[in-house]
Amino acid sequence: MAWAHLSASLIRRRSSNPASRMFFTFFPDSLHPKRLSCPRAAGWHLVSALPVNFQMGQSCGLGVRSTFTSPVYCGEAPHLSDSGISITNSKIDTSCEDVPGSPPGFAPLSFKSDASDLRKPLSCLNGNAPPFTPYLQHQFQEQSPMSSALVTPFSKLRLDEGVEMDTSSYVDPRSRALLPSWVLDGQGRIVAPLARILDEDLLAVFARDKSGCTFLQANYPPEGTPEREAIGKKLLENGELFEALCADVFGNFFIQCAVQHSNQTEQRWIISHMLGRKLYPMCLNRYSCRVVQKVIECLPEELKSLLMVELHSTNLVNLCTDQNANHVIQKIMTTFPLSQWQFIVEHFIKNRDDLFSVAENKYGCRVVQLIIEVLSDNSKKPLKHRPEMLEEIMGHLLSNCERLASNEFANYVIQHIIKAGPLSDYRDRLIELCLLRNLLSLSQEKYASHVVEKALEFAPPALLAEMMDEIFDGYVPHPETKKDALDIMLFHQFGNYVVQRMLDICCEAARAKKAGINLPDSDQRMEWLDRLETRIAQNRHRLARYSSGKKILATLQQLNDCSAVQSTPVRGRRAFPIVPPSYR
């Protein structure tokens, strides 16, 4: 087994002969590596111990710097080391210090002679080089591709693949790799007529190709033409080809085009290919799910309603939580009337655990939000059991509000209930049953703190007052530290956002009062602002050390600078102390 020791970079030393160039021939041996040593000879010396791979060239502004290995130096034969490196000189016209030019058989490389670019740090060498390991031995198999490079290194020399190349005449190999050459002109454009493409039975080939698929969509034949009939026979009457193209990265776009322009006969063919236990896997596929959505969007209701019958026997939880199928479910909910898909709602009403599984899923949480939106939308055609279904769904969610509010994705469902206008009754119930008496603990959770913020923003005046009173006075201070809930939240990594929301709500009342607008609870909000301002002033130096604290200080400072806070009959106002410059 031959050993190749790849650790040194051969660089020409500045000498009186600037026109020297080196060529090397490798004779691999199995010698144990010794410490690198090489006296200066023939105007050259070996430097560094940087291991470099066997792609022994790098294209840069200076040409090519070749890297090879000479673990030992043979003093008796300066031109040949005992590791087998033969060193010879030849002439080349150059004025650059590093080895310029290109290896034999390569076109000359242009480079800049700017003095600032003459030397590059070792970190700028070939990006394929392994990390620096001094005197590391690299063992190569005799049949490996690298072994052939050891005999004639320059015959296998390649430029660095990471170097930017001119791509003005480059053609994406995938875009036309499937197309025969006779359909393209000299510039790579498709010039073959559609009729000949169909006669040559190339419809599937074109549909699977990026450029071919675009060509078919742009030249889709109108109804009644021979080309349209040929496409119908080859595509729509062939179920296997239809399914294969639906799941293809480019073919699905052609199928969508065919669905969009289909007539009644073609529409029946399309539906027939999607029924019979084929709809479920199509919904789960990344590309065919788009075809299903296009069918739901374009086909008449009497045909696409057959798809709903097919979904009755499928796994609804998987469809709602799948990365692709959830879009099909959402398309059904926004396109079909509720009476067509109420079996989905009824399933979640009967199976509460399935509802929670979907609500706590990254993709399913949006499905649950959409169900709530549709059930609470009174503008749509009324359904007899709509209020009852909404009450059942909301009952399941509110009874497990704390669990859902603390979940990474289900908290969006709870936030949607709080901010949706038609769900104001459920919002009030949620605040009363779930949030009140738990504000401190929920404010210190990563996801539940978002729910508390949303509740402060959308709560009615009465419930807002209860929430504020709980934070200010609802918790007994710690017997030793004397810290209350506001102190804890003020410096908590999540609770400080709740305090910022409280401050924004109070500042909103101050700005409204300055503009001549009196909110129903304006005086009460001004009192809360005074209490917040006092507590923040007591901790301003500590707050100024944190980014969250700086935001709180900046909010109050901006309010004072704009003179938004004015004296009130209830309590005299004072200017907030300016933030120390050292903390700004």
Automatic annotation (TrEMBL):
Chain ranges of the PUM-HD domain: 173-560
Pumilio repeat boundaries on the chain: 273-309, 310-346, 347-385, 396-432, 434-469, 480-518
Keywords noted in UniProt: Developmental protein, Differentiation, Repeat
Gene Ontology cellular component terms for the protein in this record: cytoplasm; nucleus
Gene3D superfamilies, per database record: Leucine-rich Repeat Variant
Any one GO BP annotation for this protein: post-transcriptional regulation of gene expression
PROSITE patterns noted in UniProt: PUM, PUM_HD
GO molecular function: mRNA 3'-UTR binding
One Pfam family, short name: PUF
Protein name, entry field: PUM-HD domain-containing protein
Species of origin: Cylicocyclus nassatus (Nematode worm)
